[in-house]
């Protein structure tokens, strides 16, 4: 009897193994092996590829706590992730609602195409396009001076707002897509019933739509917050000197300084902090969903 019970789940998985094996093999090769190598490097004094003598040490992790600079940059990156996630929610949720509940037919398809359009272009192309728009004498400057009766100078390049704009543009489609899926699953008859019972539009939004769409909001927030905290391209190009964050420091260790052990240690500290934040927030997120 027990053998039959134990064999039941295995007998159900066994036919699917040929389909699951390629995906899990690829995940093992593309994710776990590089992470294992980086974990190994993070405890080394130097790269073995350089031909220098090396040994195991925890000095790379101790460097994070001994220098207040890394802690400050990590806090700045976490704040950046929260701000970008908030802006993506404020912009993406209304857009997703319009797509799911207002637009129909070809107009929905056209707007949906515009939403996913950033995925079709290279990240560097998007960033340098914003550089052409935000710099002094750029597209935004020219358009505003052509419309307004007085002369103004718009130069947002190499500033914190420019970094926010570039990151929001890159990641807001994730919020739109996740919210769209949950909003589309809401039965229109529920909204009509609430309206027929005297609920205002604001009450329907606050007590019906947002709670039912919360899984999409949370999924989008996680998809945005995690990569933004470690982002380096947008801060580097659009932020200039003001775009120094934790992710740009990690990139410098790998590319400029060639200190891979310290860069790997800083990367794993960032991974640990993000996992701790998600674990601490999981009870609240679980109640929300």
From TrEMBL:
Q: How does it sit in the membrane?
A: Multi-pass membrane protein
Q: Which residues cross the membrane?
A: 24-49, 61-78, 84-103, 110-133, 158-183, 204-226, 262-285
GO cellular component term of the entry, any: plasma membrane
**Residue ranges of the ABC transmembrane type-1 domain?**
74-281
Pfam annotation, one family: BPD_transp_1
GO terms, biological process: transmembrane transport
Q: Which UniProt keywords apply?
A: Cell membrane, Membrane, Transmembrane, Transmembrane helix, Transport
Compartment(s) where it occurs, according to its Swiss-Prot or TrEMBL record: Cell membrane
Q: Which family does it belong to?
A: Belongs to the binding-protein-dependent transport system permease family. CysTW subfamily.
Q: What is this protein called?
A: ABC transporter permease
């Amino acid at each position: 009897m027990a053998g039959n019970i134990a064999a039941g789940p295995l007998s159900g998985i066994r036919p699917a193994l040929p389909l699951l094996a390629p995906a899990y093999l690829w995940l093992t090769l593309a994710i776990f092996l590089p992470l294992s190598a980086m974990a190994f490097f993070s405890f080394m004094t130097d790269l073995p590829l350089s031909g220098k003598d090396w040994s195991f040490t925890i000095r790379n992790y101790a460097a994070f706590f001994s220098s207040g600079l890394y802690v400050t940059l990590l806090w700045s990156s976490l704040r950046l992730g929260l701000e970008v996630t908030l802006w993506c929610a404020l912009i993406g949720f209304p857009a997703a609602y319009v797509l799911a509940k207002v637009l129909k037919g070809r107009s929905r398809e056209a707007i949906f195409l515009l939403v996913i359009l950033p995925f079709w272009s290279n990240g560097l192309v998007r960033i340098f396009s914003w550089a052409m728009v935000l710099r002094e004498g750029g597209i935004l400057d020219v358009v505003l001076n052509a419309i307004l009766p007085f002369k103004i100078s718009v130069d947002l390049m190499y500033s914190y707002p420019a970094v926010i704009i570039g990151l929001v543009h890159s990641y807001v489609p994730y919020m739109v897509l996740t919210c769209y899926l949950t909003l589309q699953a809401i039965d229109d008859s529920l909204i009509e019933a609430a309206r027929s019972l005297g609920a205002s539009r604001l009450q329907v939004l606050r007590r019906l739509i947002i709670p039912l769409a919360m899984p999409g909001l949370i999924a989008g927030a996680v998809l945005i917050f995690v990569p933004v905290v470690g982002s380096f391209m947008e801060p580097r190009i659009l932020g200039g000197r003001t775009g120094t964050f934790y992710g740009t420091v990690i990139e410098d260790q790998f590319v400029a300084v060639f200190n891979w052990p310290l860069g790997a240690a800083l990367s794993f500290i960032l991974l640990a902090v993000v996992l701790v934040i998600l674990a601490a927030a999981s009870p609240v997120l679980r109640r929300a969903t």
